[in-house]
Protein 1
Amino acid sequence: MTGVIYDNFLAIVSRIEDLCSKHICFGKIYYHLFYKKMIAREAQLVDLKPGERVLHIGGGSFPFTAIHLALQGFKVQVVDMDRGAVKRARKVVEKRGLEDFIEIVAANGLEVSGAGFDAVWISLHVDPKEEIIKKLLSTLPASGRIIYRNPRGILRHYYPTVDPAELISDGAYNLNKQILQKESIIIYGQGEDYHESIIDGKSQCW
């Protein structure tokens, strides 16, 4: 799935994030147009509680998701394997005065454990997404939740798609369509009774 077209799409996304990191005003506009509602909806479905810790894999040069959650009072660790993006993201966090809430780490998503986190966000462009999710499922606490983004429409030809039904046998998950041909998938842990009461242990499309 790492073809030329995918690489070109990823390069375009990286350039946009670089622009956002260098020009904060542009970053804010981009966030309000394309990220704010999506992340707010994801956080609602995940039902984040005060004090819960969040991991975000694939934060890029301008960690939109982490900043959104940090402004809500959550502590977030951001992981990205691009050291240049990590350096730029740290500067963005410093400019926003969010150093106490966001930690940026240079690492491969495959090397990250879900232990110690309550919720994990995985960006659309992350690859190999399926392998990363499988590792997280084996290391997250029972009540942990995973939020990852799949492509919809034409983007399915260029980005990796992971079917949640193939990842879990007895867990619950939720699908939520987003703007820009994206889809948010939330995989719920087995330690929360309210998940069973909401969707009765079955998948549900929103």
Note: Helices lie at 4-22, 24-34, 36-46, 64-71, 83-95, 129-139, 193-199.
Protein 2
Amino acid sequence: MKKNSVKIAVKDKTREDIINSAIKVIAKSGRDAASILEITKVAKVANGTFYYHFKNKEELLDTIGEKILIEIVDSYEIDWSSAKDNPAVLFAHATKVNLIKCSKDPLLLKVIIDAFHIRGKVPVILRGYNKSLIAHIEYGISKKKYDIKIDDNLLANMQSINRNALIMISQGKNIDKTIQQAIEAKLRILGISSKEARKISIDS
């Protein structure tokens, strides 16, 4: 029994090593350029070991997306215990928490920025982000705070603001100011007046 537990622990560690090595490679080279060969080299495992844990590169990328989703993007979910508050204030707070979490790990920050540039299939990270984003906007619409239609253009604009904010943070720009500007820009897109959007972004 103890022997089986050790085997499982080793298997889990190897899988985690591959995931963490892939994050390093993607942060350095980008998602498209990251090869299985380079990932296994960094992880110090054989190609066969990689395929024992993952069917292909796409499965690994989805796993990384799920990992980031759990650690970071889930912070974008609505805090229903505070849902009686102004939807715009809730959205601003969620945006701030999300961007701060994204900026704490330099490697994950680069991987997230890279995900925003993917064309075609929407990465797991962005699917999770969009799901929470839509929930926030729908809540604001239900409270008659936002007068806007949810469509692909709206989501793309919100993603663009996030991407630009994260790039600025990665370049060493002032985090507080960058987040404030991102919040204000998002609220303006949702139809919040310039004056209110500025106040909420400063108070967040």
Note: The mean pLDDT is 88.
